[in-house]
Design brief:
The protein is mainly β and about 70 residues long. The protein has one helix and seven strands, in the order ββββαβββ.
Length: about 70
C-alpha cells in the first residue's frame, strides 16, 4: 500500500528547493522511494527512500524535518 505523501514543492532543511513528483516502489525490496527533481542545476530526477525523505534531522538549531512541504501540486 502506497504511504501518505503530498506532491509539490519542498524545501530541504539546508535551503534548496525540490519538486516532489511521486512515489515509486522498489521491485525487489518493495521499499517506497520519493521521486523528486532539484529546482536548480541540471534538474535530473532523483530518488530517496521514503523514510529518509520524511525523517527529522538533528541540526545546530534543533530537530528539523529533512524536507518541508512549501506548496502542494495542483
Amino acid at each position: 500500500m502506497k504511504p501518505p505523501f503530498t506532491p509539490g514543492k519542498y524545501q530541504h532543511y539546508k535551503g534548496n528547493f525540490y519538486q516532489v513528483i511521486d512515489l515509486a516502489c522498489h521491485s525487489e525490496s518493495e521499499q517506497w522511494h520519493v521521486v523528486y527533481r532539484p529546482l536548480y542545476g541540471s534538474g535530473d530526477l532523483w530518488v530517496r527512500p521514503y523514510d529518509m525523505f520524511f525523517e527529522a534531522v538533528i541540526t545546530p538549531q534543533g530537530k528539523l524535518p529533512r524536507f518541508t512541504l512549501i506548496t502542494p501540486s495542483e
